C-alpha cells in the first residue's frame, strides 16, 4: 500500500530547512501553500515569502547550522502577523516592520494566509550605522513611518527589476541606510539630501511616472502629491539624475506608443487611439515628438512593421 504524500513535510525537509534556513508548522487544515522568492543584492538578501496559515520558525539546530551573523528587517506584506523573538511578543499589521536577529530563535506566523519580506543585512553593515541596535530588536516600526514607506517603494521597484545590475552595490548600500533610518528615526524625514533618501525618492518618481504615464493630466504637482514631496524637490531630484519631468514622461509615453504600433495584435488600432492610450491628448504634438524620437512618423513605423511581417510570411 502506497504511503500518502505529505506536502508540508516534503517542503519542510527539502526546501525550508535545507535551502531557506527556516521551518514551518501549519495552524489549520487549509491546503498548504508556500511561495518563496529570494533576491540577492551585493551583500544583502531579500526574500518575498507567502504561506498558508501557520508559523515559520528557526530552532536551535537551524541556528547552529547557519554561519551567517545578520539582521532581518522583516516587513509585513499582510496583516495579523505575530512575532515572538528574544522573549518579546509583537503583532504586525500590513506594512509594519520589525528587526530580528538571525542568531536568535523565534516565530513568525498568522492564523490567516500571510506574507512578509525580510531584508537580510550583515551584522557589520548595520552595527556601523546603528550604535544601539539591540534596543530596536522586536520593536514595531509603524507603516506610517516616512522612511519605511520610502524603503518599501524602493524595494518594490527593485522586485520589479527596474534596476540595472551594475548599480547593485550602491542600491544595497542605500537599502541598508534606509533600514538604519527606519529603526532609529522617529520624526518626519523631510526632503533630505542623504544619498539613500534622494535615490529612493528618485526611483519612486520614475516608478510613479511608469505606472501612471497614460494619465493625460499627469504633472509635477500630481506626482509630488502622490509621493508626499514638494514639486520643487521633485524637479531638483530629476535634474540631478540628468533628466526632467517633461522629458522622462515623454520618453515613457513614446516607447509605449512605439510598442503598440509595432505589435501585430494591435495593428488595427487607430493611430490616434494609440496616442491616447500612451497619454497624449494632442495628436499633432504626438506626431512631432514621435518623428523626432524615432526618425519616422507613426504611420511610417506601422507600415514598415506590416511590410516586415509580409516579407516574413512570403520568404
Q: Short description, anyone?
A:
The chain has helices at 7-20, 60-65, 123-127, 146-159, 168-184, 195-212, 220-227, 231-240, 245-261, 271-277, 283-294, 298-314; strands at residues 23-26, 34-41, 44-51, 54-58, 70-76, 81-85, 88-92, 97-101, 106-110, 114-122.
State the CATH class of the largest domain: Mainly Beta
Shape from CA axes?
globular
Overall residue-averaged pLDDT value: 86
Order of helix and strand elements from N to C terminus: HEEEEHEEEEEEHHHHHHHHHH
Q: Which oligomerization state do the chains in this entry correspond to?
A: single chain
Describe the structure.
The chain has three domains: 10-143, Sandwich (Jelly Rolls), CATH 2.60.120.10; 146-243, no CATH class; 255-314, Arc Repressor Mutant, subunit A (Orthogonal Bundle), CATH 1.10.10. Helix 4 (146-159) packs antiparallel against helix 5. The chain contains twelve helices and ten strands. Strand 2 (34-41) and strand 3 (44-51) form a beta hairpin. The chain has a five-stranded antiparallel sheet with strand order 1-4-9-6-7. The chain is globular and about 65 Å long. With 315 residues, it is α+β, with helices and mostly antiparallel strands.
Amino acid at each position: 500500500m502506497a504511503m500518502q504524500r505529505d506536502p508540508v513535510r516534503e517542503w519542510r525537509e527539502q526546501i525550508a530547512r535545507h535551502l531557506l534556513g527556516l521551518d514551518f508548522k501549519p495552524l489549520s487544515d487549509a491546503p498548504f501553500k508556500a511561495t518563496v522568492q529570494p533576491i540577492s543584492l551585493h551583500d544583502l538578501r531579500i526574500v518575498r515569502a507567502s504561506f498558508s496559515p501557520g508559523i515559520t520558525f528557526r530552532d536551535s539546530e537551524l541556528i547552529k547550522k547557519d554561519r551567517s551573523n545578520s539582521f532581518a528587517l522583516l516587513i509585513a506584506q499582510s496583516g495579523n502577523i505575530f512575532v515572538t523573538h528574544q522573549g518579546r511578543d509583537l503583532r504586525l499589521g500590513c506594512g509594519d516592520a520589525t528587526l530580528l536577529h538571525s542568531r536568535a530563535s523565534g516565530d513568525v506566523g498568522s492564523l490567516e494566509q500571510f506574507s512578509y519580506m525580510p531584508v537580510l543585512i550583515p551584522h557589520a553593515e548595520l552595527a556601523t550605522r546603528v550604535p544601539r541596535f539591540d534596543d530596536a530588536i522586536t520593536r514595531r516600526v509603524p507603516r506610517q513611518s516616512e522612511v519605511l514607506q520610502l524603503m518599501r517603494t524602493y524595494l518594490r521597484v527593485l522586485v520589479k527589476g527596474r534596476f540595472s545590475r551594475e548599480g547593485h552595490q550602491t542600491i544595497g548600500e542605500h537599502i541598508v541606510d534606509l533600514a538604519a533610518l527606519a529603526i532609529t528615526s522617529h520624526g518626519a524625514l523631510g526632503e533630505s539630501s542623504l544619498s539613500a533618501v534622494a535615490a529612493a525618492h528618485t526611483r519612486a518618481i520614475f516608478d510613479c511616472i511608469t505606472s501612471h504615464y497614460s494619465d493625460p493630466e499627469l504633472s509635477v504637482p500630481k506626482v509630488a502629491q502622490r509621493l508626499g514631496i514638494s514639486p520643487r524637490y521633485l524637479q531638483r531630484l530629476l535634474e540631478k539624475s540628468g533628466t526632467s519631468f517633461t522629458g522622462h514622461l515623454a520618453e515613457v509615453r513614446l516607447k509605449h506608443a512605439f510598442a503598440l504600433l509595432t505589435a501585430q495584435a494591435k495593428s488595427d488600432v487607430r493611430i490616434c487611439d494609440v496616442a491616447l492610450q500612451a497619454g497624449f491628448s494632442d495628436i499633432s504634438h504626438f506626431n512631432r515628438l514621435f518623428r523626432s524620437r524615432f526618425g519616422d512618423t507613426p504611420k511610417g513605423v506601422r507600415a514598415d512593421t506590416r511590410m516586415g511581417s509580409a516579407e516574413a510570411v512570403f520568404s
